């Protein structure tokens, strides 16, 4: 008796799964997953998204619509699916435009930085050559000064030494 009821329950369970598309005459590969579609056969992503759309539409249906699924017009379901697809297309298009704009800005910024780097390298090279020229001129002037020093006779009347400078304080004392 228990055997009969168990096999009857298993038969009904199998029938329910077949009705819901969970069990077919063909063998389908079941992929392990943690998604809400865990009990459904593995399929393409687009099929899963369509199924998710249908499930979300069922979630928005009233209890009376769920009790009488044929009552909801097919055109309404199709228009809702078409609207969702149109929103997806617009979102993809906006994303594509934003990504292109981002790539262009990045390219412009990279080009600007490259040109600025090249300009600064030229300025750096010019400054280094100017430093070398100034060092050479300094060395040349030091060499000229060293050559001139032994022959230079300083005239006493044209050059004042620290000792010969007049001190205004001493002049004031000696005048009184």
Automatic annotation (TrEMBL):
The Swiss-Prot or TrEMBL record annotates one GO molecular function as: DNA-binding transcription factor activity, RNA polymerase II-specific
Domain of life of the native organism:
Eukaryota
Ranges for region Disordered: 1-28, 64-110, 155-176
* SMART domains linked to this entry: BRLZ
Using the record's annotation, list all stretches that form the BZIP domain.
Answer: 85-148
Q: Name one GO cellular component term.
A: nucleus
* Descriptive protein name: Jun dimerization protein 2
Task: Give the source species.
Answer: Ictalurus punctatus
Name of the encoding gene: jdp2b
């Amino acid at each position: 008796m228990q055997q009969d009821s168990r096999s009857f329950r298993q038969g009904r369970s199998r029938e329910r799964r077949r009705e819901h598309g969970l069990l077919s005459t063909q063998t389908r590969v079941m992929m392990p997953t943690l998604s809400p579609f865990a009990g459904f056969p593995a399929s393409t992503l687009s099929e899963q998204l369509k199924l998710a759309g249908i499930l979300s539409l069922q979630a928005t249906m009233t209890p009376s619509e769920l009790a009488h699924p044929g009552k909801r017009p097919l055109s309404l379901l199709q228009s809702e699916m078409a609207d969702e697809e149109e929103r997806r297309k617009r979102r993809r298009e906006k994303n594509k435009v934003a990504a292109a704009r981002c790539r262009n800005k990045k390219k412009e910024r990279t080009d600007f930085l490259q040109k600025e780097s090249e300009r600064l390298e030229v300025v750096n090279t010019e400054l280094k050559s100017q430093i070398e020229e100034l060092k050479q001129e300094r060395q040349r002037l030091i060499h000229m000064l060293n050559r001139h020093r032994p022959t230079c006779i300083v005239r006493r009347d044209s050059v004042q030494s620290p000792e010969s400078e007049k001190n205004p304080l001493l002049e004031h004392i000696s005048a009184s």
